[in-house]
Amino acid sequence: MLSILTSIFIATASAQTAPPVVTPSDFWLPIGASVQAHNVDLMFNIINYICYFFFVVVVGMMVWFVIKYRAKPGTRIRNDGMTHHAVLELSWSVIPLLICIAIFFFGFTGYVDLITPPKNSFDVNVTAFKWGWQFKYPNGAQSDNLVVPSNRPVRLVMRSNDVLHCCFIPAFRVKKDIVPGRYSTLWFQCDIPTGPEEKNGYHLFCAEYCGTGHSNMNRRVVVLPQAEFDEWLVKQAQWLDEIPDDELYFKAGPKIYARCQQCHSIDGTIGLAPSWQGIWTRITTPGGARFSDGKSYADIIGPGKEYATPEDYVRDSIYNPGKHLVATYGNVMPTFKGQLNDRAVDSVIGMMKHLDEFDAKGAWTKTLPPAAAKTETKSEMK
How far apart are CA 99 and CA 2, in angstroms? Predict the structure, then answer.
């Protein structure tokens, strides 16, 4: 027993200096890729082995006693056995108590470390909503997947736009609820870059059931060396500004639509919100679809009306989605005010006007003219 207790102290102390490596997955745990993962896995495995040990001891003795002391025919029933054994009773009380104290001590110190980010942490503001994530960086850049620098602690400052969510990154062994009306934080540090490919990134999940599109909140965490991350951060903040106006709808549109496709289809598939298929015809044709208050598009769009142009209506619907609800649909769309600027909105409007050029997943099906394609290739190589 004492050897088990001693192993907890020795193993946990040695874990503090463990080198940064990606620990392989096993039967119980996925790969571990953060500086916190090694200690979390160590405590998990130690507790598991303690449970294995006592399971074998208890079940083994129980089976042995059943066989050895089973009642045989003709055996006289005895009631004069011992009533207590002080040494035995103290042993099975004190030794488990010491083990539990050791587990609590190292578990609590590990918990304090997990909730206390270092002072030099890189902050990323995270907004969870039904059903997606927005990751916003100090320079104003935004991304749909989380991109972070390696060899540097990262703190996520998280809030929810609607219901309860939970940020869970299994490979980093971090998880935190995101409660509406409150800010939550968690931190991690990954010292091993994944490369720029999203498919190589670590999984990020919402671990709190938040409605119909809950499973659509799966994302990736991409880890880049500091120099590459700094370069990506600058480009990410300027990517919309570098796209020519006439190419905005097919270059930026699909990227923005990726945040809309959880609810809006473009092929007529029924979802949680109206399909974009034929939307520009519905908006610009007299009559059109009806809203929950009985009005139609023609009642609110046109000279002297609430919206002078269809573009004004789309813009306001993005920023104030609950103002006019299409009949039979609920108010489930979050506001994108502060998340999508004017050029982003322009790209969405442009995509709506050219839906015949996109497939059901929002990918542009046409090709660039040779001259434009050549220019595009050069810009990507810079």
Answer: 9
* Residue that is written with structure tokens 């103002």 in the block: 323
C-alpha pair distances (Å), 292 with each of 10, 181, 268, 324, 329: 66, 29, 20, 8, 8
- Cα separation, 363 vs 304, in Å, equals 37
Amino acid in position 378: K
Tell me, yes or no, whether 232 and 252 share the same domain.
Answer: no
pLDDT digits over 12-24, tens only?
Answer: 444 444 555 678 8
* Low pLDDT (below 50) residues in the chain: 1-2, 4-5, 8-17, 371, 374-375, 377-382
Element (DSSP H or E) covering residue 178: strand 174-178
Q: What are 292-345's pLDDT values in tens digits?
A: 888 888 888 888 889 888 889 899 999 988 888 888 888 888 888 877 888 888
What pairing do the DSSP bridges indicate for beta strands 122-129 and 154-160? Answer: parallel
- As for how many domains the chain has, the answer is 3
3-state secondary structure of 174: strand
Residues 240 and 339 sit within 8 Å (Cβ to Cβ): no
Rounded Cα distance, 253 and 364, in Å = 9
Q: Clarify whether residues 225 and 268 are in a common domain.
A: no
Same domain, 265 and 333: yes
Give the list of residues 6+ apart from residue 153 with CB closer than 8 angstroms, or none. Answer: 117, 118, 120, 121, 122, 187, 188, 189
Beta bridge pairs of residue 124: 156
Of 179, 211, 236, the position where a domain reaches its end is 236
